[in-house]
Design a protein that fits this description.
50% of the residues lie in helices and 21% in strands. A 6-stranded antiparallel β-barrel has the order 1-10-13-12-11-14. It has 3 domains: 54 residues; 120 residues, Efflux pump adaptor protein, beta barrel domain (Elongation Factor Tu (Ef-tu), domain 3); 190 residues, Helix Hairpins (Orthogonal Bundle), CATH 1.10.287. It is α+β, with helices and mostly antiparallel strands and 439 residues long.
Length: 439
């Protein structure tokens, strides 16, 4: 470099001394000044080296531990799948609509008419709600809707209809009620007769006491030979007749008790028959409700939770869907997300609570969607079966990436976690490496 700077000047001096011996082309080459980067190259190189050294005081270079991770949620979005194959005849909601638990979202094609099934379900629920109050007259006076397009529900509907008609005949002012009223009237008649018999018993007992006193008086007269024994026997016969009358009255009272007891047994049997028929009606009603519910679970799409309904794909009415096809997700209002990292023992001692974690979800490329920031808030003290340790990562921003995009949670989402264990400056790392080399 130095020779290049001074050689032209020497040659130029010599050329002046021998001007006649140097041509113009050679003189032009000799007088050419090199570019400034050639003349100041060393200075520029040292300046760049100094700038790079200064940058090492400001640039941070973190230590990163890579580990597999899995996204988990508390109250995750609940999938709703089709349980039958067929056309999606009706959609009741749109995408991102707020729904409540149990709300119907649509229904699938079936041999049963949806509107008739819903009418039958409404009647059954209304009837069941009235049963605890035992208002069978009100229940049975509410006519069962005439339905003929129930498809697989039609046999159960006909069976219940027959049970309902029999219950009407027996319970709603039918045979059982009339017979029960007749038995109650018989009991009143028996009670009246029994009261009359009691009155007769009291009169006969009073007459017997008088007859007993009269006989005792004539008995004293007979002992004193005032009256003949034959006359005393006549009074004794009268006393025996009074006692026989009293026993007959007692028999009548016993017969009244037996008759009353028989009527009460008949009433008890009748009440049992009524209770049995009520139980049969209740069982038939609940059985019909169960069959309706089974049909609804198969053909009607219902929200399993309250929240926001999300279409898993573009759905439209009359679209053919497959059995088991995922149709909706229900995103609840308060869903919390966190990450479980399975870390090997390599570098585990450098992992601590509060360290930052960068998550790259496998299903959402980080170049397009970005990554999810998080912080470690729990490290298991004992290893699992694979000699790895479970690490719990909190996500303060949920599933919102650093690009501002929201990742939709699905069960089983996996990710790659980058745990930043030490974010040192570059100069510190260079110094550390230099110390290792010196050692």
């Amino acid at each position: 470099m130095i020779k290049i700077n001074f050689m032209p000047q020497n040659i130029f001096t010599a050329a002046n001394n021998n001007a006649g011996l140097v041509s113009d082309e050679i003189r032009e080459i000799i007088s050419y000044r090199p570019h400034w980067i050639v003349r100041r190259g060393n200075t520029l190189f040292f300046l760049i080296l100094l700038l790079m050294l200064l940058l090492t005081f400001f640039i941070n270079y973190p230590d990163i531990i890579h580990a597999p991770a899995r996204l988990t949620a508390i109250n995750p979005p609940k999938p709703i799948n089709a349980k039958k194959e067929g056309k999606l005849l009706k959609l009741f909601v749109g995408n991102e609509t707020q729904v409540i638990k149990g709300q119907q979202l649509g229904y699938i094609e079936s041999t049963a008419d949806y509107n008739e099934v819903m009418r039958l379900q409404l009647w059954v629920n209304k009837t069941i709600s009235a049963i605890p109050a035992i208002r069978y007259n009100t229940i049975l006076s509410n006519p069962l809707p005439a339905l003929v397009n129930l498809g697989p529900l039609q046999p159960a509907y006909q069976e219940f209809q027959n049970q309902l008609e029999f219950t009407k005949q027996t319970l709603a002012n039918g045979y059982f009620n009339r017979k029960s009223a007749a038995l109650q009237k018989d009991l009143k008649y028996i009670s009246t007769l029994k009261n009359n018999t009691y009155q007769q018993q009291h009169l006969i007992e009073a007459d017997q006491q008088l007859q007993q006193k009269e006989y005792q008086a004539y008995e004293l007269l007979a002992k004193e030979k005032v009256i003949a024994p034959l006359e005393l026997n006549q009074y004794k016969s009268k006393l025996i007749a009074k006692e026989q009358n009293l026993k007959q009255v007692n028999v009548q009272l016993t017969n009244s008790d037996i008759s009353s007891h028989g009527k009460q047994k008949e009433i008890m049997d009748l009440q049992k028959q009524v209770a049995d028929q009520q139980q049969n009606f209740h069982s038939a009603l609940l059985n019909l409700k169960s069959i309706i519910q089974e049909w609804i679970e198969q053909y009607v799409l219902t929200a399993s939770e309250s929240g926001r309904v999300l279409f898993s794909s573009g759905l439209q009415e009359n679209q053919l869907i497959n059995n088991g096809q995922n149709l909706f997700y229900i995103q609840q209002q308060q869903s919390a997300f966190y990450v479980e990292i399975t870390a090997s023992q390599k570098g585990l001692g450098k992992i601590k609570n509060g360290q930052k974690v960068i998550l790259k979800v496998d299903s959402y490329p980080s170049q397009e969607f970005g990554n999810i920031p998080g912080f470690i808030d729990y490290i298991a003290e004992m290893p699992n079966n694979n000699d790895s340790f479970l690490i719990h990562v909190n996500l303060p921003n949920g599933l919102i990436t650093n690009y501002g995009k929201t990742i939709f949670f699905k069960t089983g989402l996996t990710a790659q976690a980058e745990i930043i264990t030490d974010n040192r400056k570059l100069i510190d790392r260079l110094a550390g490496e230099l110390k290792n080399v010196i050692r």
